[in-house]
Structure formats: C-alpha cells, structure tokens
Amino acid sequence: MNKEDKEKLKKKHILDALKRCLDKEAYSYISMQNVADEAGVSKGGLRYYFPTKESLFIELISDFFSEIQQDHISIVSKLDTDKDRAVISTLYGIERFVLDQRNIKIFINLILYGLEDKKIMVPIQEFFNNHRKQYEEIIKQAKSKMPVINKEEFDLHFKARIAQIIFLSAGLLEAIDPIGTDPSKLTRYVISLFED
Hints:
mainly alpha, Tetracycline Repressor, domain 2
C-alpha cells in the first residue's frame, strides 16, 4: 500500500472515530483529545491529519454528505423509470441514509456546528442546495409517473407526522439553504395535501 492510500485509510479511521464520538456526545463536548482517544492515536498524530477541530469536521461533512449522495446515486442508477413506483423508490432511497438513528445524530450535530461557524456551514449549504435540486428533478419526473393515491389509506397519525415533518424541517432548511419560503403559503400547501 502506498503512502497516499495509507493516509486515506488513517483519515477514514479517524473520521469513523469522530462519528462514534458524535453518536455519544454533542459536537460541542467533543475535543480533539476525545477523537484521538477514540481513534487510538496520539493527539499529535490526529493533528498531523487534521490540524484543527474545524478541519476535522469539514472533512467529516464532506465524507458524510458524500455517503448520502452515493446512496442516492446507487438507488437512481438501478431504477426502471417505466415502473409506477420508481419515484417513490427514489425518494425512499434518498432519505433511507438520513433516517438511520446514528446518522441523524451526526447530521444534527453537523448542522448545529454549522449554525455556529460559517466555515462549517459552507459545505452544509452546498449539500442542501444540491439535495433540493435532486428533488426538483424527481418532482418533474413524478408528475407523469406517480400512481393515483387513495388518501383513505393514510390515518390521522401518519398525516400529522407528515405535517410535523414539513413544518419542523422548513424552518431548519430555510436557515441552511434559504429560498424564501412564505410561511402562510407553506401552511396552505400542507393543508391542501390532506383535503379529500
């Protein structure tokens, strides 16, 4: 194994250690020493690869969001676009990674750190901008491929969860990737989803 491959492997080992730390603690409680201990390396060894906590988290953001992107690409590349449920499968595939409990802890920690540090927020904003554009493409495709939905199959708990997700997510997403969502327009749209 050449030196470059060894460095990539070591960085991945350290990033995995940071993920384990984020699964246990909030980002603000995690020090470089905590990550070094979790990775089984010296603090100096950690700083060789990541000189600052900021550089460590920026690399994690890149790695983490790249995993989400690769998960999406692997689903989309296998789609049979002639099937009715292709769009639903795509949406499920995109979000499957994020809905894993461990991943959601990491995801929230990265966003919280980004809200405090503009340098951390830049790659997060880039991801969310690209993610939104993927949905724009899926929505364009969905107009002609979505099956008719029987709204009676969705109970009140499910509908309430959907409304909750939309409203809670909207504020967070506007803070990260603002598109000027009008709250009253959003409310009218959400209510229209549940009309018979």
